[in-house]
Amino acid sequence: MTPFLVMSLIFGLTFGQAASLCALSEYTIHVEKRECAYCLAINTTICAGFCMTRDTNGKKLLLKSALSQNVCTYKEMLYQTAVIPGCPRHTIPYYSYPVAVSCKCGKCNTDYSDCVHEKVRTNYCTKPQKLCNV
Length: 134
Prior knowledge:
mainly beta, 1 helix, elongated, Gonadotropin_bsu, glycoprotein, Gonadotropin_bsu_CS, secreted
């Protein structure tokens, strides 16, 4: 092999193992309540992307906890609250949602993350839509 090809291969393997593509991403949440007249489309940020994971050949030798894979998850987040328009007086019109401030590759924490990717699309409106830019 040529020296250039060898150096490219070494650089690619080294950088590829260290790099992850976990970053903030814009996302729209659609929120509605049965009692309210409108669906609220909220623009927020989430953590999304790829995290480097290694699958070991010695699965039978390791504890199950050592086999969990890294996912792109929140490093820092805060909660904001929006008001759903068109709600009658007896209905609480507030909706709190997470806003990602920074992201990291780490173990998935089910206390605040959905660790399963579902193919069913549930993020849509069935009522007239209002946009909330926060």
